[in-house]
Amino acid sequence: xxxxxxxxSEGSLAQMVTPMFQELGHSxxxxxxxxxxxxxxxxxxxxxxxxxxxxxxxxxxxxEKYNFDTIFHAVDISxxxxxxxxxxxxxxxx
Length: 94
Known about the structure:
single chain, alpha/beta, Rossmann fold, three-stranded antiparallel beta sheet, 2 helices, 7 strands, globular, disordered C terminus
């Protein structure tokens, strides 16, 4: 069993993959900044940490708290105000 950090845990891809990890017996911690989807209306079987990956001190604290074995990085690129916005890094790409 591994402890897996799922970034972008409230997005579509993570919503499909997370239950599969849990069925395999892995422990999941979700991480999302909620900028795109907000909190999904469903029962969570894992802790959800609301953290922006651009905030290095909060990311460091997250790793110290949970001691992850691996990461499933499901953060996406989406459109925001007519420009591409990379949610995980908080950067606008022109």
